[in-house]
Amino acid sequence: MTDLDQNTEQLIFRAARKVFTLKGYNGARMQEIADEAGINKALLHYYFRNKDKLFEGVFGDVLKTLFPGLTNILTADLPLFEKIPLFVCQYIDILTNNPEIAGFVLYELRLNPQRLVGNMRDIGIDMNLIRSQIESEVAAGIIRPVKPEHLIANLISMTIFPFIARPVLMSVAGMDEVHYTKFIEERKRIVPETIIQSLKPIQ
């Protein structure tokens, strides 16, 4: 592939990511992507023959933005109570820098959950490693008994909700951009504290 071809593919890919994350698979049109890239539709189809192929590439790229770093934290050789703040802080930073991807992934997950499952396997997310650590720390009396699925659901939902519900949250709470930014920074402390406190054994 020539440098020109590579540059054109990257141009199309960036345009496709912008259009797909804003409108989803069903709402996006190939003509819109061509317009966003500043090329004609025939050239777009030369590089990406169909919408499905282009979307799969974009969706996989978005998941790689979200998950690999988080997976490294969850599978690191660290106590669970150290992993939780690291996970939450990194997740919040990722979503702050890529605010459009939270709603995009959740919307596409509802329409086609198997697409997410397949991509997560490719990324290398192994729930067995996380499950093993939780079971070990439960057995050692470090944390209360908890299903790994609930812990992961709590971590993700408590972190992602303020980004999904941002307009409603800002309106109901009367927050402007400055206050919302401060609120998100506070979540880096509050979410881990809340989850860790819920996991500590009852004295």
From TrEMBL:
<dbReference type="InterPro" id="IPR036271">
    <property type="entry name" value="Tet_transcr_reg_TetR-rel_C_sf"/>
</dbReference>
<keyword id="KW-0238">DNA-binding</keyword>
<dbReference type="Pfam" id="PF00440">
    <property type="entry name" value="TetR_N"/>
</dbReference>
<dbReference type="InterPro" id="IPR009057">
    <property type="entry name" value="Homeodomain-like_sf"/>
</dbReference>
<dbReference type="InterPro" id="IPR001647">
    <property type="entry name" value="HTH_TetR"/>
</dbReference>
<dbReference type="InterPro" id="IPR050109">
    <property type="entry name" value="HTH-type_TetR-like_transc_reg"/>
</dbReference>
<feature type="DNA-binding region" description="H-T-H motif">
    <location>
        <begin position="29"/>
        <end position="48"/>
    </location>
</feature>
<feature type="domain" description="HTH tetR-type">
    <location>
        <begin position="6"/>
        <end position="66"/>
    </location>
</feature>
<protein>
    <submittedName>
        <fullName>Transcriptional regulator, TetR family</fullName>
    </submittedName>
</protein>
<dbReference type="GO" id="GO:0003677">
    <property type="term" value="F:DNA binding"/>
</dbReference>
